[in-house]
Amino acid sequence: MKFLSTFLAIIVALFLVLSQAVYTVDQRQYAVKFQFGEIVSTQTEPGIAFKWPMIQNVRFFDKRNMTLTSVNTDNIMTAEKKPLLIDFVVLWRITDVNQYYRSVAGDEEQAKKRLEQTVRAIMTEEINLRSIRDVISLERDKITAATREKANIDTKRIGVEIVDVRLRRVDFPTEVTNSVYERMRAERKRIANELRSTGAAESEKIQAEADRQRQIIIADAYKDAQMIRGKGDAEATAIYAKAYNADAEFYNFYRSLEAYRETFQGKGDTLVLDPSSDFFRYFKHFNKDGKEGKP
User: Are 80 and 172 in contact (CB under 8 A)?
Assistant: First the structure.
């Protein structure tokens, strides 16, 4: 019984020792093995590894991209000496875990502090060279690309690579916001007035052209109407002449009836003329032999 207890105790002790001697490296991690505080080896690939219990220890570091957000909003001057409030975000990862440990003792917060200082200094230089318009819209990508490229030269010294840099906030300080908005409003008003002036000029030009075309159309129509009226009058005159030549007496009689109808349009119409005038010629009575009698 005593032997069995001793055997079991040995088995448990061996299991404990073995469990402390074996460790697993995840695919998302680096593993650094230490012996008495010194780096013995580094494992960058996933799998099972071994260490001496009590003598060696292992620390794990993240392989994945990590995010750094600027703690304080920076007040940075542009090329026009105008202040802008800048916030940025950095995507970074560990590339050389041994160098990372030697530089910042594996402290993520210390690494972030170093990264933030580097990115802030370089970004300030880039913004100082550009106008407000460039920073806000035109060259925003150029600023972040240049910042990432220059910052990586420094961050390689601590075994870190900056994957991306982005401007999270670009804004005006409160004390200059109102004046900037007023200038923007004045500029937009100036552009609007220019557009209105241009539109008014174009409107007048179009109206003048329309009036000219109208006058031309009216003149052409009047000319055509006069030609048609002249032609009609000529044809009417020819018809009248033909009718007159065919029977002059009947034509005179017909014209007289037309004159009577135009003159006497109402029952109360009165005309004072000599009864013997030629106007009443066809009101007179003629005898069977053709002699004129009383009307």
Answer: no
